Amino acid sequence: MNQHSKSTTQIIMVFVLLLGSFLSAFAETFLNNALPTIMAEVHVSQATAQWLSTGYLLVAGIMMPTAAYFTNRIKLKPLFLGTISIFLSGLIMSATAQSFTILLLGRLIQAASVGVSMPLVQNVLTLIFPAEKRGIALGIGGIVINLGPAIGPTLSGIIVTHWSWRMLFIALIPIACLVLVLGIFTIDNVTDTRSDHLDMPSLIMSIFGFGGLLFGLSQIGVSGNLDVTSLFEILSGLLVISLFCKRQLSLKHPLLELRVFTAPSFRKVALLAALTNIALMGPELVIPLYNQTIRGTNAMTSGLLMLPGTILMAILSPLSGKLYDRFGIKRLVSVGFTATFFATIPMIFFDASTSLNTIAFLYAIRSAGLTLVFMPLTTSGLNALPHSYLVYGSTMIVTLQQLASSLGTAALVTAIKLGHGFQWAFTLVLIIGAFCLIISATLKNKTVTEI
């Protein structure tokens, strides 16, 4: 096979991988605007219905730490096809569910698949592209990671306004089938595998540690209250995670390689990636709530207000990767975090009379600013790691982002309830933006292997 044919084959394979990843990312938020409709049809409370979102995040978060093991242990083609098949079965179960229990079970099956497939695609992009081209590669991947969750509320608002909530799942079934068929013919086993031993104590501690932490945070995210039970779950989860971390450092082939944190640049980037995820995902939760409860808009209008920001994400994500490869991280984080910070300030003063155009404009500016830094940060951190640590580093960043998303949701919902309004939530997002701006000033412009 000549170089041109090999390049074309690789591009097609990456496209199929990204299409599968888009399904996973889209499914994370596409029920946000559909929960009231589901509550009315299946006769469940808001707290119960919320488990379609929080339960999804919980299971996906539990599975993510295992992604590095599966990437190292199983060849890419069967692993990718397996995760898509599991995701498809969950879609069918949810689409045909006659009770809330079956609907939720289908949703959790989707999440189990996504917990592996989301880090998998980023892992593959990291491995098959050299460091000097990794920025543009992950930037293109960022279209999927950013666009999926961002466009979810927009499309779901339109769908549930005109059709049944079941159409949300039904519409994804043929796309999942297409990805499955394309995957059979286009995915090559381009990643190296090894006969890693799955350390069962690590797996059990990972499930109970990350599961307990995420469950406690999700309980707060639903109720907005920090009660004794939630606090116990969070502290228990953190205790088990500390034991999990201690064990990983003693193993030759750990479930998660924590030695990635010995690279100073990776440590800073991992923290910034988590904070940036809160800054990005937080308003995607808060703004639809504000639009529908304070501004009185319907689900479709609320979704459309976020569309300009979504379009900017799609445009800027590959551009940000190209700019990183050319100029480094310093200019990007300076422009991106500054734009995010100043676009968040007016949100603190949102009220019932705030113009819808103003809401859409400020959300779009924030989306653009964060898109400029989101994937370049990941690239900068991974470039500080040797090749043997890339899969672990990529998995670690995705896992931390998932934990940060749950933490951010819990904190923002609590801020809304304690503050009796949305000003506290936007203030918290502003503070996170300020921390990002300060920490980013200490980053190296271009990173090289530090371990």
From TrEMBL:
Residues 13-448 form the Major facilitator superfamily (MFS) profile domain. It comes from the Bacteria. It is found in: Cell membrane. GO terms for cellular component: plasma membrane. PANTHER family: MAJOR FACILITATOR SUPERFAMILY (MFS) PROFILE DOMAIN-CONTAINING PROTEIN, MAJOR FACILITATOR SUPERFAMILY MULTIDRUG TRANSPORTER MFSC. NCBIfam families: efflux_EmrB. This is Drug resistance transporter, EmrB/QacA subfamily.
